[in-house]
Amino acid sequence: MNVHIPSTLTPLFPGLTRHIDVDAGTVGEALERLDERYPGLRERLCEPGKLRPHIHVYVDKERAELETPLRENARLDVIAAISGG
Amino acid sequence: MSQVVVLVGTRKGLFVLQSEDRRSWRTRGPFCESWPVFHAIYDDSTGTIYVAAGSEWHGAAVWRSSDLGETWAWSGEGLKYPEGEFPVTKVSSVTAAHGRLLAGVSAPGIFESTDGGVTWSHLSSLEDQKAQEKFKDPANSPPGTLGLIATVPHPENDQRFFANVQGFGVWETEDGGSSWTPRNEGLRADWPLDDPAWGYCVHKLLRSPADPERLFEMTHVGAYVSSDGGKSFTEITEGLPSDFGFAASAHPHDRDTAYMIPLDPEHGRYMHGGQVAVWTTKDAGSSWQKLTNGLPGEGAYLGVLREGMSMDSLDEPGVYFGTSTGQLFASADDGGSWSEIASYLPGITSVEAVVVD
């Protein structure tokens, strides 16, 4: 599956690109795989036990949560949602 | 050659101004990926800038630079409460003293770092205080709460420091954060108190660099001075245009001199009558003088936030303040005359002026 990362995140992790392929069964697992490659990344997207309030995740264009399952070749978009001016 | 460096925290990152003569200034930034900045300091023992920040998207972190902003690193490692507790949403303040950093955060608590800001661990949330049961829930704090808005270290005693909880008041520890004592005696409140020892709204607590027992406070209802290290406070509002304000600064060499910026206490929260003005006392609050030479007005409805004022430590110290609408003003002669040294920054949340060799 392919993960699309928000541009606000890439400056925080040297080498992180906007599009990354990972193998995972759920959104939460996908973020764990990313965190293994870029330690600390998961915490920039999640509070304990859930996504941060202004981080929205979509799986194949449908709003998703950490437990949302992923099919093979799914597209996962991580969005830094509108938050002030 | 020494230079004055002014760290300007804004809603869109940190800016660094530098000058060797306090007349011409070089401005760099924005740094910290334009994250909202709440406070920034320079630790002269290590030559490092530390920046307290919180992104609505990516959470709380402290940014750091050991080359005056040329390169940056950040860390949020350890800046979190256990699962099930209120999250850490922002770092509101940071101080450096005695070889360690203290970060005040929201939800209210203090985290410490002993490795120069690489990792953090929870030190205290004033767990021995009854007030903690109330302030740990952000719903009981003001909208947009900053939580634990300041720690104020003691220059000689690493176990002794103050913690200021927004909307609840000031506490002091003398054992490194294990136990706490309310330090709000003498303050007024215009609202019902659960306990007369706490429940006060201290916008800014200052310790005089010239005398650690001399403190000044600007609060929601009054300006105050303490001569006994915070055990008691005396109101010194008389002579000021209102009893409300955020920003204040203590003179680096004179224990009796301080600067404050009173504001309209109602919805406006701008300086009175549309005249930008700094007020100074040179006798610990017995009298006040209004300083306006070179400052805009009438028609200048500007506000200054709680960390928005600072002084450098030169023999004739400079005074600096930044507005919530992005203007930065400076005086190189103790407030006698002023000039605008930056005009179009994002809204300014903090100003810190230091002398760097």
**Helix count, DSSP H or I runs of 4 or more residues of chain A:** 2
Structure annotation, total helices of chain B: 1
Strands across the major sheet of chain B, in which order? 3-2-1-28
Low-confidence stretches of chain A: none
Q: Strand-and-helix sequence of chain B, N→C?
A: EEEEEEEEEEEHEEEEEEEEEEEEEEEEE
| Spatial strand sequence of the major β-sheet of chain A | 2-1-7-5-6
Residue share in helix of chain B: under 10%
What percentage of amino acids of chain A are in beta strands?
25-35%
The secondary structure category of chain B is: mainly beta
Radius of gyration of chain A: 12 Å
**First-last Cα distance of chain B:** 6 Å
Q: What does this protein structure show overall?
A:
- The complex is a heterodimer of chains A (85) and B (357).
- Chain A contains two helices and seven strands; from the N terminus they run ββααβββββ.
- With 85 residues, chain A is an alpha+beta fold.
- In chain A, strands 2-1-7-5-6 form a five-stranded mixed β-sheet, with no helix packed on it.
- In chain A, β3 (46-47) and β4 (50-51) form a beta hairpin.
- The longest helix of chain A is centred in the middle third of the chain and has 11 residues, at 27-37.
- Chain A is globular and about 30 Å long.
- The model of chain A has no long low-confidence stretch (mean pLDDT 94).
- Chain B has 357 residues and is mainly beta.
- Chain B is built from one helix and 28 strands.
- A four-stranded antiparallel β-sheet of chain B has the order 3-2-1-28, with no helix packed on it.
- The chains are: A alpha+beta (85), B mainly beta (357).
- Chain A binds chain B through residues 6, 8-9, 11-12, 40, 43-45, 47-49, 52-55, 80-81, 83-84, and chain B through 33, 55-59, 74, 76-77, 80-84, 87.
Give keywords.
heterodimer; A: about 80 residues; alpha+beta; 5-stranded mixed β-sheet; 2 helices; about 30% strand; globular; B: about 350 residues; mainly beta; 4-stranded antiparallel β-sheet; 1 helix; 28 strands; about 40% strand
